[in-house]
Specification:
Number of strands: 2
Helix content: over 70%
Strand order of the largest sheet: 1-2
Order of helices and strands: HHHHHHEEH
Low-confidence stretches: 1-6, 240-245
Largest sheet: 2 strands, antiparallel
Distance between the termini: 40 Å
Shape: elongated
Structural class: mainly alpha
Number of domains: 2
Radius of gyration: 25 Å
Length: about 250
């Protein structure tokens, strides 16, 4: 990296811009650690390390070892890295919770249809939900992003049996996952205040998403967006080396 020929004076605009950016980085680290790091000692250590890093950048700029632009770029890069890691953790959490909702929805379909839709819709949805919980749960606990559950591997093996690759299996898995979520949200369910004299009529039913709470609806649609992105990533990845679990 290039160096300044002169020291950056503490009262200069460039110096204060770097100092302000460093303060924002430290504040962002504290917010993210409070949200994602439960252990108090580890959280304190993380905050201290980021604070030392930010202070080091400011000192480098003040001493002329870095230009103000280089200092701001280094801080922005660290902020982007922190946000990327936080987003990855959030996606895994959404995937795990969405998996639990899939199991509940699948069980509801089996119960509500007296078993008639269980084999072709309820049971597969519960299987996908369990697999999504497994993948995202292990990813969170192991701080990884490449866990493949038994159901995904089944899709991959079926794809290979038809002379395709794991990539096509992952696309099929994500497509079925997304399709079942859309169908599940649009299926007819009984209204909360419906009553029956002899049998229920069409007006006693409403689309499932209308009976869903706003937080659950937003979470499920967020999971759909993550799944759709995973399908897209697999589609453009001709080598089939990446996948994004729900």
């Amino acid at each position: 990296m290039g160096q300044l020929k002169e020291r950056c004076e503490p009262d200069s605009c460039d110096y204060w811009a770097v100092s302000k950016a460093a303060g924002s980085l430290t504040s962002q680290a504290c917010t993210l650690s409070a949200r994602h790091i439960k252990d108090g000692t580890l959280r304190l250590q993380f905050n201290r390390e980021v604070s030392y890093y930010a202070r080091g950048i400011v000192n480098d700029v003040a001493q002329g070892r870095k230009s103000a632009d280089q200092g701001l770029k280094a801080i922005k890069s660290e902020q982007s890295s922190l946000l990327s890691q936080a987003l990855e953790i959030a996606q895994k959490g959404v995937g795990a919770i969405a998996g639990a909702l899939q199991i509940a929805t699948g069980a509801g379909v089996c119960y509500g249809s007296a078993g008639t839709l269980c084999l072709f819709f309820g049971a597969p949805m519960m299987a996908h939900g369990a697999n999504n919980i497994y993948e995202n749960g292990r990813n969170i606990l192991g701080n990884r992003s490449d866990t493949e559950g038994p159901l995904r591997k089944t899709y991959q093996n079926i794809a290979k049996s038809f002379k395709y690759s794991e990539r096509e299996g992952n696309i099929a898995y994500g497509s079925v996952d997304l399709g079942m979520s859309i169908v599940g949200a649009g299926r007819l369910v009984l209204k909360a205040d419906s009553w029956r004299l002899f049998r229920y009529v069409r007006t006693d039913y409403v689309r499932a998403y209308r009976n869903t709470s706003t937080p659950a609806f937003i979470l499920d649609r967020s999971a759909d967006a993550i799944t759709a992105k995973g399908i897209h990533d697999q589609w453009v990845d001709k080598d089939g080396l990446r996948h994004e679990p729900r």
